Amino acid sequence: MIFEHEIPTGSRLYFGKIAKLKRTLENTSSVFLEDNGFEEIITPNFSYSGHQSIDNDKALITLTDEVNNSLALRADSTLDVVRIISKRLGRATIHKKWFYIQPVFTYPANETYQIGVEWIGHHCVSEIINLNCQLLEKIEIETLVQIANINIPMIVSKEYDIDIELFKNGEIGALFELNFEWLTKLISVKSADELEAILDILPDCLHAECQKLINIANNVKYHNVNISPIYYSAMKYYDDIYYRVIKDHLTIAKGGGYKSDGINSLGFALYTDNLLKVIEG
What we know:
CATH class of the largest domain: Alpha Beta
Number of helices: 10
Structural class: alpha+beta
Order of helices and strands: HEEEEHEEHEHHHHHHEEEEH
Distance between the termini: 35 Å
Oligomer: single chain
Number of domains: 2
CATH superfamily of the largest domain: Bira Bifunctional Protein, Domain 2
């Protein structure tokens, strides 16, 4: 029996103080982003399911339209925004800097509210990280920014026949047991200076990607930054330098570079509900 007061697991309800905090957070973010040249876009809640950029089709909440075309509730905003800007609005605007404040929906009834930014055709990752950090400072949250390069663990896995799952699952003990001195040191690296100090002992195949990570980290203007060269997360679209923002064991934001329809772009998403948990304290 379902009682009248119950709501589906994963759905969101905001009222009183928390509703006011959410409105203030979203308003502060929108003003900041507009001041930095971003325009707002609100994409349809529904789209044709074939347009959804999500790895697991079973996570889609689907239905059909009046002529039996398959529809889905929006399950992702990043590539949805880029697709609509390039395909639908391409002749109506040349603007490349966009933000959105909206939820995504996944099966069975999960709502995830996001404040997201997409910078279409831009490729300087440090600039998007700095923008993300400035926004966090604007809403007065102290965080840790962790920067990684997905290419580093992928190269190590390929060149040394190491199962990528060891990196994906964070099995550090198993990686230590391989007894590669350079890998042991690489695992322990936390800063750009530390990574630069061990470049000479790293395999040649890693130099370019490690130097890229060093350069990005050195151009991030935030007081609490670390790097994690062997961190690997199978992101849906971030395919090079990417980062996450952490506070009180919660992921506050994720972002990085990605490619859509052959165009290199940058983006990040703030996770509204985790932010509210931090703000509410």
